[in-house]
Design brief:
This protein is mostly helical. The protein has ten helices and no strands. The radius of gyration is 20 Å and the shape is elongated.
C-alpha cells in the first residue's frame, strides 16, 4: 500500500463510511418513495387504469422541477429546510436530505419509464382476469418490469455516488470532501488520484452487480 494511503488510512475509511451513509439513505428514499411515485406517475397518466390528470400533472411537474435544478443549487436552496429537519445544514446527516429528495425524483422517472416498457397486453390480461390495482402492480407490472427497475436503480445509485461527492463542497463529508480537503487544497495530487480510483472501482462494482442481477431476473 502506498505510504500516503497508510498515513491517511483512518480518514479514508471514515470518508468511505460517510459516502456509504449518504448513498444508503438515497437508495432507501429511492425505493421507499421513488418507486411508489414512479408507479403513480405511470398509473395516473392518460389511458392508464387510474387516469387522473391533476395527480399526474402535479407529480410530473414536481419531479421535473427537482430534476432540472443543478444539484449544488438544490443543496443551497434546501438549506433552510435541511436546518429545520436536522437542526444543521452541515455534516453527513444534513447531506442526506437533499440527496434523498433528488433520489426520489431521479428514480421515480426511471420507474415510470420501465413500467411504460411493459407490453400493453400484460395489463389487458390482468384487467380481464379481474385483478385488483394492488395485484396489477405487484403481480404483473413489477414482475414484468423487474429487470428495468434493477437497471434503473443501478443507474440511480451511480448518480447518487456522484452527487455525494458534491456534498463535500458544503461540508457533507465523504470521499469527495476528503479528496478536496486533503488532495486538492493541500496539493497532494497523488492522494486525490487514489480517491478517484476508489470511486471508479466502486462505480464499476455497482454497475457489474446491477447488470448481473438484472440479467438473471430477466425472463423475457
Amino acid at each position: 500500500m502506498p505510504e500516503i494511503l497508510v498515513q491517511y488510512e483512518a480518514e479514508i475509511w471514515s470518508s468511505i463510511g460517510e459516502t456509504f451513509i449518504m448513498v444508503g439513505v438515497s437508495i432507501l428514499a429511492a425505493i421507499v418513495l421513488g418507486l411508489p411515485v414512479g408507479t403513480l406517475l405511470f398509473l395516473c397518466r392518460k389511458g392508464q387504469i387510474l387516469e387522473n390528470k391533476i395527480i399526474f400533472s402535479s407529480l410530473n411537474l414536481l419531479v421535473n422541477i427537482i430534476r432540472s435544478f443543478p444539484f449544488l443549487l438544490l443543496v443551497v436552496f434546501l438549506i433552510p429546510f435541511t436546518r429545520f429537519i436536522i437542526g444543521t445544514a452541515i455534516g453527513t446527516a444534513a447531506a442526506t436530505i437533499p440527496l434523498a429528495i433528488i433520489a426520489i425524483a431521479h428514480y421515480s422517472r426511471l420507474v415510470e419509464q420501465s413500467l411504460l416498457d411493459v407490453p400493453k397486453g400484460v395489463l389487458e390480461a390482468a384487467i380481464s382476469m379481474g385483478a385488483s390495482v394492488k395485484e396489477i402492480i405487484f403481480k404483473f407490472l413489477y414482475v414484468e418490469a423487474r429487470s428495468g427497475l434493477v437497471l434503473g436503480l443501478t443507474t440511480s445509485i451511480i448518480s447518487f455516488i456522484s452527487y455525494s461527492t458534491i456534498m463535500g463542497v458544503v461540508g457533507g463529508g465523504g470521499i469527495g470532501d476528503f479528496a478536496i480537503r486533503y488532495g486538492y487544497q493541500q496539493f497532494k495530487t497523488d492522494l486525490m488520484m487514489y480517491m478517484i480510483i476508489i470511486m471508479v472501482i466502486l462505480v464499476q462494482l455497482i454497475q457489474f452487480i446491477g447488470t448481473t442481477v438484472s440479467r438473471k431476473i430477466d425472463k423475457r
